[in-house]
Amino acid sequence: MKTPKAKKLPSGSWYVRVRIDGQDVSITRPTEKEALAEAMAVKAGLSQHKKDLQNNDMTVLQAMNDYIESRRSVLSPATIRGYCIIRDNRFQSVSKMKIRSISRERWQQFVNIEARQVSAKTLKNAWGFVSSVIRAATGESMTVRLPQVVPQNRPFLEPEEIPTFLEAIIGDPAEIIALLALSSLRRSEIMALNWKDVDLKKRLLKVNGASVPDENNHYVHKPETKNQASRRTVPIIQPLYEAMLKVPNRKGQLATMHLTTAYNRINRACKKAGLPEVGLHGLRHSFASLAYHLQMPEKVAMEIGGWANDATMKKIYTHVARNDVNHYKSAFTEFFENGDKNDDKNGKQTAVQ
């Protein structure tokens, strides 16, 4: 009988999967020796684990591990990493309980406990994973009441603040990374970008992959991007072009600095210049805001930014610059003071967005 291979999980436990009667059996034990011994017993048909599985008598932790491992080959390493973080940090008090023995009322109690420890958004993400695990293990759709997630306004640069930022970041080791983010690129896309994707003559760069951290915090390259629209060609803005020309050896990966370091350097430059500390993703938000300010057609902004639909761009990323708000507020109040004379005076109609 062939001995199966055991895999050590980030939690320290050992995991083995064997196939019995056309069905996968997942085994998690504290040590490699125990996991392999159980696996061999299962293959020999002598293990109580098989009966437990048939009766759906697994613990929450076992169900989580089974859910993760059964999807490891099809989900993004970053998604698997997120699942592992939830498994190792959330709902710890319920992990050893039999998953079928927990009623909706009991799950609600555990959710209430978690709500006192983490933010509403963190809890929402954690419960999304746990509810999927419950459904996969028992076939039951478990619903609970979650606290309301209050959207947070991510800081971004106003259009008139961008020139100040460009002066503050010039010559900084994080300059190219910052300018890529300001050009609409996501963190994962920046990490995957290679010099072979850059055409300095045409001043274009191709975004066609992503690099994401796995459960062991090692970056894994994915040939696919977040969505089909994410595969795109982005124009190289003048500051980025000038920064790229200064790089002597333009080979390999563009981003040679860890993104956490780049994030800190960007915020340091912002603080020194008296700007909001926007970080990397805030610069991507700034791109969307600038596109809106410049009245860029939505389809063009979506294509450059890699959004699959305008709802996402509008809901999450498009901020209206303060000057634009003030302009339309003034136009609104002046209408009631002077009627439509403002339209003749300005020579244009103000459109309602």
Please characterize this protein's 3D structure.
The protein has 353 residues and is mainly alpha-helical. 49% of the residues lie in helices and 10% in strands. The protein has 16 helices and eight strands. The strands form three sheets. The chain has a three-stranded antiparallel β-sheet, with helices on both faces. A three-stranded antiparallel β-sheet has the order 4-5-8. Strands 6-7 form a two-stranded antiparallel ribbon. β4 and β5 form a beta hairpin. α3 (60-71) crosses α6 and α8 packs across α12 (279-293). The radius of gyration is 26 Å and the shape is globular. The N and C termini lie far apart (70 Å). The relative contact order is 0.09.
